[in-house]
Amino acid sequence: DTAVSQTPKYLVTQMGNDKSIKCEQNLGHDTMYWYKQDSKKFLKIMFSYNNKELIINETVPNRFSPKSPDKAHLNLHINSLELGDSAVYFCASSPDVWAGANVLTFGAGSRLTVL
Amino acid sequence: AQTVTQSQPEMSVQEAETVTLSCTYDTSENNYYLFWYKQPPSRQMILVIRQEAYKQQNATENRFSVNFQKAAKSFSLKISDSQLGDTAMYFCAFMKHDLRDDKIIFGKGTRLHILP
Which of B33, B44, B103 sits opposite A108 (nearest CB)? Predict the structure, then answer.
């Protein structure tokens, strides 16, 4: 069973559209994250949620809105997609905010291509 | 601000050889964690090894070991007896030991090819 699963794996869409990427973890972790990997393979944290509450919100355009309906899910919604949003987005989780990224488990990533 | 630098974008070695991946970082913190992650073609990010900065002893996980030089802010990964399955992107990462700051900072990665 996949520990951290993201859907879709691949997403191709036009500029200006709104899209969502879903993430679910079945590890019982309290803390979940979204990372963006750009074309140069550099990973940067975007958001972190602990038990449904936002705890980290890096400098990300407000077109990006995370939503955590429960602690096992952290979805990423992107409005008015731009070409520069093309990247691989990784979801991750850790047992709790105290363990933090010390024991991150990542999903396989979702490749977003904006045309 | 913390930074992580991996100066080797790509490396190739023959199977069974030993390879060392370099990583340097910059921080003013005293307590922190360092990691090496492996990203195979499946694109999952797999934790290979981690090091707590307060520990002087270098971490070891089977064929993987690190050379942690705190004063020099260096954290290299050594893979012994390399195997074809070690072919992947490897990311060095840093995290402060700060309960209020959960960020993890990654380097840009080193693509490692193990040749048969």
Answer: B44
